[in-house]
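Obj.: predict assembly geometry.
Materials: sequence records (below).
Method: joint structure prediction, all chains together.
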Amino acid sequence: MATAGTVDHVDAEPEEAQRLATEARDRVRFEEDALALSDQVYRVARHFASSREEAEELMQETYARAFRSWRSFTPGTNLRAWLLRILTNLNIDRGRRQQRAPQMQPLEANDYYLYDRLSADGDGVSDDERVVERLSQDDIVTALSAVPHDFRDVLVLVDLGDFSYADAAQILDIPVGTVMSRLHRGRRVLKRELAESALEEAT
Amino acid sequence: MNDPCAHCEEMMQPYLDHILTEQERTEAEAHLDECELCRKRYKFEESLRVYVRTATATQMRPELQQKLSALRIPLE
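Observations (raw structure tokens):
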């Protein structure tokens, strides 16, 4: 028995070494995959946060945590959504955002409102392809930041980040129905903000 | 449903998100076929979505990229 035990022990060592080597390879690969997505994650983070500094801080906290807890990621599932779930939790943990139903009721415009305003304010040259260009890039960025967080998070994930409703629901830990209604309303709030800034410029 | 344009307005977001039922989509398209103004408004909404995406595109500073890479756990 003792001899057999010794043999087992000798055999176990290369197995353990093999396991460690495989794990190291998986980890390196995970880190590389996660880093390759950082531009896309940042794109969302930047509009979740209120400033570039805050977004950069969040990104670093997110990646530090992701690298530490890489084992809890299931290979083959959506890594970008997994990273954003971490980012969202960190954002909430840090008290930057409370997870709650929106308290204030933002003012929405009907869906046609913005187009109708912009085309009415036109200079008579009704080049419809160009109506949208009456809005400046700054108008868009400012209007988006004025959308309340709960609506904006969904808007940013779906319309800017190309996440599905289901992914957005999982990332924000809210039901899919809530994602849909917040998205719908968030877009209307955004358009109302845009209409306001366009009107201000016109006067 | 007295005002077909108001109904079409309600259909716009789900239409562009491709989540209408077959029947709702046919309904919306029937109105769009005959109403130039609604067609223009839909088209505007489509270009607005693209424009919002382009206008908000933002890139990480290279310094941040480096900081993120530095967070990797070194191999033992």
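Conclusions so far: The two ends of chain A are 94 Å apart (CA to CA).
To do: check interface contacts against the pulldown list.
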